Amino acid sequence: MLYLLLAIFGSGVIPVVFRGFESWRINLFWAIPINYIVCVSIGGWLATNGLSVGGLSSGAWLPFAAVQGFLLAVNFFLLARTAQRAGVAIAALASRLSVAIPSVLAFALYGDSMTAVKLAGLSAALLALYLCTAPEKNAGTASEKLIHGMPLLVFATFGVYFTILKYLQTYYLDADSYHSYVMSGFVFAFLTSAVIGAVKRVFRPAEFRLKHALAGIMLGVINYTAVYALLQVLALRGWQSSQLFPIYSVGVVAVSTVLAFVCFGEKLSARRSVGLTVGAMAVALLNR
User: Does residue 193 carry a pLDDT above 60?
Assistant: First the structure.
């Protein structure tokens, strides 16, 4: 139960932290790469057998790790911008509803059965996404419309990320290679975020502040704790994933929404409140 609470709280706090970064004037292009350095360092320190370059390069899954590392870095930047512009609750919901994409593809890739419950869940996911992302009547400018499109990008990129992960778990990974794969993904995520920062020309020593590093360290600890705790939860005996994923996903959205209201007074329109409710129902249905 402790690991489940850590997984829910850690994942739910991340969008809130990104929202706070804006108020604290934290440079994401410094904090996010540092976050991945912390994740890799913690993972390497805790790994019982250590991580070697030769061992990682010999894995058949390495190209997939590169793709997922790229997606992970992009996802974090998108999640941060969505939380800061469209709201924490919307960002959390869009990332959780992304399970709709691998759920649809599973019918073709893995021969999953098409049930009324799954169809209802997919329909509810699409409805919730529309309710939460459709521009308000007064959103007339191009920039305002772009803000409402950010959750769609979060939905799509997280969906592709989870689809690749499911594919690898089915055909490539085993218990011995899982930890190495996750850590190599963090390495590629760091490299991607570093390249993005270099292209943006933000890595000027004169502009670096200690608070950017401290923010990255804090984010890295939370990020790694959330991932590690979720892996521990999935390994629990006597629990089925159909039980765990609905609790985890709905819990993350609930934690993010409550913390956003408490910390920032973030309120939702009536339509988006309905969208969040429908989205919670969709997450539960998709993971039955």
Answer: yes
